[in-house]
Amino acid sequence: MTDAALATRSAFVAACREAIGDAHVLTDAHDTEPFLTDWRRRYQGAACAVLRPGTTEEVAALVRLANTHRVALVPQGGNTGLAGGATPDASGAQAVISLARLNRVRALDPHNNTITVEAGVVLAEVQRRARDAERLFPLSLAAEGSCTIGGNLATNAGGTGVLRYGNARELCLGLEVVTPQGEIWDGLRGLRKDNTGYDLRDLYIGAEGTLGIITAAVMKLHPQPAARVTALAALASPHAALDFLALAQRTAGPLLTGFELMSDFCLRLVGKHFPQLRYPFEQSHPQIVLLELSDSESEEHARTLFEQMMETALEQGLVDDAVVAENLSQSRAFWDLREHIPLAQAEEGLNIKHDIAVPISSIGAFIEETDAAIAQAVPGARMVTFGHLGDGNLHYNVQAPEGGDAKAFLAQHQTMLNRIVYDSVDRHHGSISAEHGLGQLKIDEAAHYKSSVEVRLMQTLKAALDPLSLMNPGKVLR
């Protein structure tokens, strides 16, 4: 870095200290280290400072200073992302702007069924505040104890409730955003109907901080269900799971809130590394579905509906076996099986992860075709396939062959296997990123699979809103 560049960075950091206070501008390596590495430890960056504003006005002031000194900003929430979208580059010229101190719940309106929260509020806290008001905030994912609403919106997070409630975009009614010029757009209107021009809210959701910084949001709440009934069903194939999903939707309609697919190998892996989570059936079955109904009437009503559905599924040969949770503790144990799959994968060793979506009707064919292609390319590769079957989102991961060198496996095969998987996704008219975002991990892959028209439209939006390219450069778009 030249002397002039160093002087510019020093002037910027000094101005930031004056704007938000010395204590909230971190430059010491010990203090900044947690902000510079992504959750998977795949990306390690550097920064001239980590900035921790406490209000929207302070965020705006920092963005204006970034414009003056031409310093790029990397917004960060709970730093739980899986695609490197909140990690600075290695130059040391960028600044991380952490939204963790914007952690206030501004309002909860039970009649409007909304909660207005700042970007740094942790997802689990939003859920808790909703419960205290006898409401439900249905966004739920494994990182909910540390991820933040701002990050959830920046990546358009999905999770286990998308089938009934939609992803983060569907749960958001309004935003407050600091623009790349340091202006504040107050769109916190909490309206279900507002047909007064371009939908700016949807523009910022899923943009990963590349078009502006989300500082607050109005999120939808729902009535708390009177009862939840959870079950595990054993099936012969993903095709049978699709037929079972269709039956469940016909029988339960909007009461069906979860429909998670897990392969036999997924649960065997969980049992290997977490023996307390035992395999739920006496015999092995190729596929397991975890499904849940949420009923506003009563547990008796939900169980009766569930029993009718399972009886039909067994009669039609869609399901080979099933077990229904008898209490909340057993329901939690079922969900623990699902949620421990990524942890078991990590214990098993390095692996190649894919967060993909295809039309629900294509899931069976996608799994069969892609499994076969991978088996031919790398004999012995182990498929860890699980995900949100009800909305077409699969975590389609590849583990090294048993006893193999996982690091060598990644080095030798990752590029090829990514191409096999993504080409198959493309043939089935799917997406290479369903809920994790593009970040820096999939930026080149996205450009490869998107049409030139789509890429140019995105580039036009970026150039119009962020002409200096100071908002999270190197993410989503080159």
From TrEMBL:
<dbReference type="InterPro" id="IPR051264">
    <property type="entry name" value="FAD-oxidored/transferase_4"/>
</dbReference>
<keyword id="KW-0285">Flavoprotein</keyword>
<dbReference type="InterPro" id="IPR006094">
    <property type="entry name" value="Oxid_FAD_bind_N"/>
</dbReference>
<dbReference type="GO" id="GO:0071949">
    <property type="term" value="F:FAD binding"/>
</dbReference>
<dbReference type="InterPro" id="IPR036318">
    <property type="entry name" value="FAD-bd_PCMH-like_sf"/>
</dbReference>
<dbReference type="InterPro" id="IPR016167">
    <property type="entry name" value="FAD-bd_PCMH_sub1"/>
</dbReference>
<dbReference type="InterPro" id="IPR016164">
    <property type="entry name" value="FAD-linked_Oxase-like_C"/>
</dbReference>
<dbReference type="InterPro" id="IPR016169">
    <property type="entry name" value="FAD-bd_PCMH_sub2"/>
</dbReference>
<protein>
    <submittedName>
        <fullName>FAD-binding oxidoreductase</fullName>
    </submittedName>
</protein>
<dbReference type="InterPro" id="IPR016171">
    <property type="entry name" value="Vanillyl_alc_oxidase_C-sub2"/>
</dbReference>
<comment type="similarity">
    <text>Belongs to the FAD-binding oxidoreductase/transferase type 4 family.</text>
</comment>
<keyword id="KW-0274">FAD</keyword>
<dbReference type="InterPro" id="IPR004113">
    <property type="entry name" value="FAD-bd_oxidored_4_C"/>
</dbReference>
<feature type="domain" description="FAD-binding PCMH-type">
    <location>
        <begin position="43"/>
        <end position="224"/>
    </location>
</feature>
<dbReference type="Pfam" id="PF01565">
    <property type="entry name" value="FAD_binding_4"/>
</dbReference>
<dbReference type="InterPro" id="IPR016166">
    <property type="entry name" value="FAD-bd_PCMH"/>
</dbReference>
<dbReference type="GO" id="GO:0003824">
    <property type="term" value="F:catalytic activity"/>
</dbReference>
<dbReference type="GO" id="GO:0022904">
    <property type="term" value="P:respiratory electron transport chain"/>
</dbReference>
<dbReference type="Pfam" id="PF02913">
    <property type="entry name" value="FAD-oxidase_C"/>
</dbReference>
